[in-house]
From TrEMBL, chain A:
Protein role: Catalyzes the oxidation of glucose 6-phosphate to 6-phosphogluconolactone.
UniProt protein name: Glucose-6-phosphate 1-dehydrogenase
Gene Ontology terms describing biological process: glucose metabolic process; pentose-phosphate shunt, oxidative branch
GO cellular component: cytosol
Residues the record lists as binding NADP(+): 65, 172
A GO MF label: NADP binding
Organism annotation: Streptomyces colonosanans
SUPFAM superfamilies per the UniProt record, alphabetical: Glyceraldehyde-3-phosphate dehydrogenase-like, C-terminal domain (SSF55347), NAD(P)-binding Rossmann-fold domains (SSF51735)
Highest taxon of the lineage: Bacteria
Catalytic residue list: 264 (proton acceptor)
Keywords: Carbohydrate metabolism, Glucose metabolism, NADP, Oxidoreductase
Catalytic activity: D-glucose 6-phosphate + NADP(+) = 6-phospho-D-glucono-1,5-lactone + NADPH + H(+)
Pfam families: G6PD_C (PF02781), G6PD_N (PF00479)
UniProtKB/TrEMBL annotation, chain B:
Annotated InterPro entries: G6PDH_assembly_OpcA (IPR004555), OpcA_G6PD_C (IPR046802), OpcA_G6PD_N (IPR046801)
Listed Low complexity bias regions: 309-347
Region called Disordered, residue ranges: 309-355
Pfam families the UniProt entry points to: OpcA_G6PD_assem, OpcA_G6PD_C
Organism placement in taxonomy: Bacteria, Bacillati, Actinomycetota, Actinomycetes, Kitasatosporales
Native organism: Streptomyces colonosanans
The protein, known as: Glucose-6-phosphate dehydrogenase assembly protein OpcA
Residues in Glucose-6-phosphate dehydrogenase assembly protein OpcA N-terminal domain copies: 51-165
Domain Glucose-6-phosphate dehydrogenase assembly protein OpcA C-terminal, chain residue ranges per copy: 170-299
């Protein structure tokens, strides 16, 4: 029983008021007691229901070790929704959701629990009309992946019967190097077909990231200059002001590059640099992203083209912050990078010779993610040098978060009798031109999973290509000395500044 | 911040807008459209409040055109424009100008509005009450890409629907139509779950609620089956019952908030289907500014049927129709639309500003 949109006479492509509602389906969350589940997934489910985007009878099943009854689970969801949902709480929406909520108690190696889960799903098919369509959201530590996947297989939970679907949703990290990523993919694909596996990179669910494609390919004014003839270089930054918080166990040994560059930053780079896809469907997009990731060239001298560093004690925004090595649960001899900056080239006709600088770090000046495309200086200026002394390079900056929007920076005459040209910026702010409450990334992504729309999910090849880019860098860092240091609350180590200085450039202050 | 201007002109208002923006320190303009609300003093407050709420989703410049009633010949010949310019916190996320027109200028409101439209941005006109018969030909309506009326607020909604159908111009839309989007989407979702053919439909709702007629016409138009409209005491729409080749499908809502979807052979399910506030309706209207072809087709359907089928008897009021009789009752008269009265009756003229 698939959704028969083609056959449904009430569906009409021209009727654009009718939202894309997911077909009959349910969502099973493993690790439902975790932070992500409470802060993001449950509220996202509620928000979707509140916006009328979930099918009648949508079911939510929690699976965890806690000794809970259905009622305890409902209470937890209720509290999570009240606290974190984006849209106001409405009793009638809650009444609709509550009917399909179930909790299954058990550990991941407990066969009985998975049998109970199967029973629950069968019961929901009868009671709620979910039609056998279930997505399994694995919000679990990487080491539990294989067990859960195998258990799903063993108990026939991954089997798609006639006309129904079973999907797996997995979160980063997708391995910690190429080999482990391949292993993980092998495990998952043995049980779920590749097109039924959805890898969540929540950055791709953000409106601003999707807007990169709109900005580039729906407009005429940017694309003609989006190439090596006009672009000097590109800087992609993702900075966090927080430290590692309670994630010491996960973070140590992984580091900033694996945690952020491998997935988020390389995806942002792919979207910024890729050629125009033949159409806006999942296959065409993936094809272009794969092409550009495949064309990435590492710097010849990894020591000069990359920087890794750790934060030391300092002051971050008026608060005293301890250094990384002093954080609780961190080995004082740890070499894990909390800051990483790398310089990449793309070997194709459009980008040859244009460096892409990617940097990410914890305990930096402020929380910001942005893509800055910096243009070359005008080849000739009729103004004398004193007039343009303060003129920088033109830039288009896509602000991914916070304060989502696009900034264009260019020179303008300062009012007055003398000719003096200075940088000004022209701003487009999402919050100002569109809704105050644009949907959370998870809302969009969960809906897409239920609809089976894989536009916004990285594929196996993309993940593996990203590891191919990062592995040699990590290897180099392993073998070459200790990370550089930067005081918490600054914009990174001097080594990173020097790296750009050697190229005659400098980092933007985001 | 609020600036009051008495006996003023559009250019002075424009100056006040710039001055207001400067004063609150946000000289950049990120507004995406101009919303022109044409109303009387009585409805201005509620309409403006709804528009301000909607402006959180669509930052806009809101122009409220209030045509004041002149009660003496002297008043009618003299003419005056007063304006209240609001920017910042008092105007949602955009800017608001409340324009009060007295005397002769009442008939030339477009001359005040035109200079105040945002450059290069779409214009939406909204009449919360007393919409003109042909919105596209109205001098204010002609400035707008999208014209929002509300037949729910009309004296005789069904006749007004007829008039809307006749005068339809791409870009017209009606809040009675907006109100049923959740119903339509839930009914479509219900049909997603089964693959069977619909044979007859019954739409039940309160009297004088054109949303019921519009929903009935939409179902008839899409499904090409007889649709019966029956009455209940509300609130709003109360039920849609579909007789299909695999049993009955019913969506019922008695309390205006929580509905029950029953599909034969499946358990009943509760679905949230709350009646929405005007602000939400306006926000939905502003989301898409292209012509609504589905609405056009639904309106057109109604007119065709009403003139073709020689108006079958009004459905017996108060009859609690059960699934069984729904199909039978409707099958005789192709599609029994609503209280289909004389099609050609003149729709109520604009209840003129001056009584």
């Amino acid at each position: 029983m698939t959704s028969v949109h083609g056959a449904n006479p009430l569906r009409d492509a021209a009727d654009r008021r009718l939202p894309r509602i997911a077909g009959p389906s349910g969502l099973v969350i493993f690790g439902v007691t975790g932070d992500l589940s409470r802060k993001k997934l449950m509220p996202a489910v509620y928000d979707l229901a509140n916006r009328g985007l979930l099918p009648p009878g949508f079911s939510l099943v929690g699976f965890a070790r806690r000794e809970w009854q259905d009622e305890d689970f409902t209470k937890v969801v209720h509290d999570a929704v009240k606290e974190h949902a984006r849209t106001p709480f409405r009793e009638e929406v809650w009444q609709q959701l509550i009917q399909g909520m179930r909790f299954v108690q058990g550990t991941f190696d407990d066969d009985d629990a998975f049998e109970r889960l199967r029973g629950t799903i069968e019961e929901l098919d009868k009671a709620q009309g979910t039609g056998g369509n279930f997505a399994f959201y694995l919000s679990v530590p990487p080491k539990s992946f294989p067990v859960v996947i195998q258990q799903l297989k063993k108990h026939g939970l991954a089997d798609q019967t006639e006309g129904s679907w079973r999907r797996a949703v997995i979160e980063k990290p997708f391995g910690h190097d190429l080999r482990s990523a391949e292993e993980l993919n092998a495990i998952v694909h043995e049980v779920f077909a590749p097109d039924q596996v959805f890898r969540i990179d929540h950055y791709l669910g953000k409106e601003t990231v999707q807007n990169i494609l709109a900005l580039r390919f729906a407009n005429q004014m940017f694309e003609p200059i989006w190439n090596r003839s006009f672009v000097d270089h590109v800087q992609i930054t993702m900075a966090e002001d927080i430290g590692i918080g309670g994630r010491a166990g996960y973070y140590d040994g992984i580091g900033a590059a694996r945690d952020v560059i491998q997935n988020h930053l390389l995806q942002l780079m792919a979207l910024t640099a890729m050629e125009e896809p033949a159409s806006f469907d999942a296959d065409a997009l993936a094809a272009e992203k794969t092409k550009v990731l495949g064309a990435v060239r590492l710097p010849r001298d990894l020591g000069r083209g990359t920087v890794f560093a750790q934060y030391t004690a300092g002051w971050q925004g008026g608060e005293k912050a301890v250094g990384y090595l002093q954080e609780e649960g961190i080995d004082p001899a740890s070499k894990t990078d909390t800051y990483a900056a790398i310089k990449l080239g793309i070997d194709n006709r459009r980008w040859a010779g244009v460096p892409f600088y990617l940097r990410t770090g914890k305990r930096l000046g402020r929380r910001v993610t942005e893509i800055a495309v910096v243009f070359q200086r005008a080849p000739h200026s009729p103004f004398d040098t004193t007039a343009t002394e303060e003129l920088g390079q033109n830039a288009v900056v896509i602000r991914v978060q916070p304060d989502e929007g696009v900034t264009v920076r260019f020179g303008s005459k300062v009012p007055g009798t003398s000719m003096e040209i200075r940088d000004v910026s022209m701003d487009f702010a999402y919050g100002e031109s569109f809704t105050e409450s644009s949907p959370e990334a998870y809302e969009r992504l969960i809906l897409d999973v239920l609809l089976g729309d894989s536009n916004l999910f990285p594929r196996t090849e993309e993940v593996e290509l990203s590891w191919k880019i990062l592995d040699p860098i990590e290897e180099h860092w392993d073998g070459h000395g200790r990370p550089a240091q930067y005081p918490a609350g600054t914009w990174g180590p001097v080594e990173a500044d020097e790296m750009l200085e050697r190229d005659g450039r400098s980092w933007r202050r985001p | 911040m609020k600036i009051d201007l008495t006996d003023t002109t559009a250019s002075k208002i424009n100056k006040a807008l710039v001055q207001g923006r400067r004063a609150i320190g946000t000289p950049a303009v990120g507004m995406v459209l101009t919303l022109v609300i044409v109303t009387d003093e009585e409805n201005a407050y509620d309409a403006l409040r709804a528009a301000n709420d909607a402006s959180r989703e669509h930052p806009s410049r809101t122009l409220v055109v209030i045509k004041r009633v002149s009660r003496s010949p002297r008043n009618r010949t003299s003419s005056r424009l007063d304006a209240e310019v609001r920017v910042g916190a008092e105007a949602g996320t955009g800017e608001t100008v409340v324009l009060r027109l007295y005397g002769e200028v009442v008939d030339h409101a477009q001359s005040v509005v035109l200079p105040l439209l945002l450059p290069d941005a779409p214009v939406v006109a909204w009449w919360p009450v007393n919409a003109p018969l042909d919105p596209a030909k109205d001098p204010l309506g002609a400035l707008a890409q999208r014209r929002v009326t509300d037949t729910y607020a009309a004296e005789t909604p069904v006749e007004e629907l007829n008039a809307r159908a006749k005068a339809y111009t791409p870009g017209d839309t009606d809040l009675s139509w907006t109100r049923i989007t959740p119903w339509r989407s839930m009914l479509a979702a219900a049909l997603d779950q089964v693959s069977c053919e619909v044979k007859a439909v019954e739409v039940e709702g309160e009297e004088f609620n054109p949303s019921c007629e519009l929903l009935a016409m939409w179902l008839a138009d899409r499904l090409d089956v007889p649709v019966k409209r029956s009455l209940s005491s509300g609130p709003g729409l109360t039920a849609v019952r579909m007789d299909t080749s695999c049993g009955s499908i019913a969506l019922g809502r008695s309390d205006g908030a929580l509905a029950t979807l029953s599909i034969e052979g499946q358990p009943d399910r509760a679905v949230a289907l709350k009646r929405r506030e005007t602000a939400e309706l306006i926000a939905e209207e502003l989301r898409r500014l292209d012509p609504d072809d589905t609405y056009a087709s639904v309106l057109r359907y109604g007119v065709d049927r009403l003139t073709a089928a020689a108006a079958p008897a009004e459905p017996p009021a108060g009859e609690t129709a059960d699934e069984g009789t729904a199909a039978a009752g409707a099958s005789e008269g192709a599609a029994a639309q609503a209280p289909a009265k004389k099609a050609a009756t003149k729709a109520p003229a604009k209840r003129a500003a001056a009584k």
